[in-house]
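Sequence, please.
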């Protein structure tokens, strides 16, 4: 960032108007940008859908879908309407928004012709704007704040953005040529994020494949894929034969958390991570009557809304004293040390997950007891092979984490670009 831009940002932050800028309802903007409102740019479209058009959806996170929405992607309370004429037609370049969630960012530009829910509003742009530029402009923080302000309802849950309120939202826009250049820069950044997302998904798919092939199936003593130099048969052993269980925190209420010199491992940490994230602990008072966790302990969740998510596990590699486990989990302490990266991944493998799901019980909510988890059969190779398999999965996990960090950095970069370009602080 140049010194000129840094000075300009400093001036604007202090409410000073830099040379070449002026003060408007939308803040300090370049003098050659035109003040307007969304009603000067858009006209409402009320045309019925038809059987030949794909059903599109607007997401807070990803904008307007590029094609037909799968039934599974629809919210649970949303059902498809048999009469397609009740939907609204949306052409490429139209702006659509969910009246109930526009204030949360459920607004965007259509990239392919389709139809949308009757709960959406469809707006046709005129020739003063580039539709792709407006896709970014309506999602910038300043515009979302205006949308929130213009939405009506008793509580946030009931807020609605009606057409009459939408048209009065102010905007300040650059020339059409500058709009297109800005949109091109931001679209390039989106492409970077998309490629990183794709890489992360490919790595996760690769790991899922190896989790299936690098551990033996039931009734077999050797995996399908194996490192060279290893020929010994694997042994199947029950968890209960190789260690003991211990309880998580008990007798605590909400006032006990958030302060103190002790730590406790959160439920989300156990649920989300094969290897516990040492940063995902929260403060609590030291209590010598509780079970303190040790390096190499394995944690299991005991309750979940779906059978597929029950009994998720995490291996603890921390050495902090006075650290306790969440009360919605229980701990398992091996009598003999497994390779932590091996055991963390075998417990997340398909062959083990099937055993856990089979032993879970429940209808609206699923639970699994410690005794049932202790009956699970685990395939164990030699210690040397455990180290080899564990290191392989650790490397894959590190690659996923690396690309996730890059992805998060590029998302922050896009946010900064939007703030600078769409406000005119940085000119193209």
């Amino acid at each position: 960032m140049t010194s000129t831009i840094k000075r300009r940002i400093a001036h604007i932050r202090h409410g000073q108007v830099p040379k070449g800028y002026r003060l408007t309802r939308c803040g300090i903007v370049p003098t050659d940008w035109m003040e307007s409102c969304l009603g000067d740019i858009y006209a409402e479209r009320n045309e019925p859908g038809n059987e030949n058009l794909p059903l599109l959806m607007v997401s807070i996170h990803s904008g307007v879908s590029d094609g037909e929405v799968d039934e599974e992607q629809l919210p649970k309370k949303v059902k498809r309407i048999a009469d397609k004429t009740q939907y609204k037609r949306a052409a490429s370049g139209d702006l659509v928004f969910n009246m109930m969630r526009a204030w949360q960012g459920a607004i965007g530009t259509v990239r392919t012709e389709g139809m949308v829910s009757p709960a959406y509003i469809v707006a046709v742009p005129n020739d003063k704007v580039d539709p792709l530029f407006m896709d970014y402009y309506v999602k910038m923080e300043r515009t979302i704040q205006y949308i929130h302000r213009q939405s009506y309802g008793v509580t946030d849950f009931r807020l609605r953005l009606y057409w009459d309120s939408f048209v009065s939202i102010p905007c300040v826009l650059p020339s059409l040529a500058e709009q297109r250049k800005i949109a091109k820069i931001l679209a390039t950044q989106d492409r970077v994020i998309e490629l990183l997302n794709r890489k992360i998904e490919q790595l996760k798919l690769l790991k899922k494949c190896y989790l299936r092939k690098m551990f033996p199936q039931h009734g077999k003593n050797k995996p399908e894929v194996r490192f060279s130099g290893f020929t010994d048969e694997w042994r199947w052993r029950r968890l209960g034969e190789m260690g003991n269980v211990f309880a998580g925190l008990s007798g605590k209420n909400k006032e006990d958390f958030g302060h103190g010199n002790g730590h406790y491992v959160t439920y989300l940490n156990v649920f989300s991570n094969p290897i516990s994230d040492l940063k995902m602990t929260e403060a609590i008072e030291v209590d010598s009557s509780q079970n303190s966790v040790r390096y190499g302990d394995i944690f299991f969740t005991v309750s979940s809304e779906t059978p597929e998510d029950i009994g998720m596990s995490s291996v603890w590699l921390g050495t902090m004293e006075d650290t306790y486990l969440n009360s919605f989990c229980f701990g398992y302490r091996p009598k003999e040390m497994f390779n932590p990266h091996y055991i963390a991944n075998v417990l997340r493998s398909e062959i083990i997950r099937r055993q856990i799901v089979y032993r879970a019980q429940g209808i609206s909510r699923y639970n699994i007891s410690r005794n049932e988890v202790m009956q699970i059969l685990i395939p164990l190779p030699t210690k040397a092979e455990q180290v080899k398999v564990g290191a392989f999965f650790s490397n894959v996990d590190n690659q996923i984490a690396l690309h996730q960090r890059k992805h998060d950095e590029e998302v922050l970069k896009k946010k900064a670009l939007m703030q600078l370009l769409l406000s005119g602080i940085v000119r193209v």
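Residues 1-33 form one domain.
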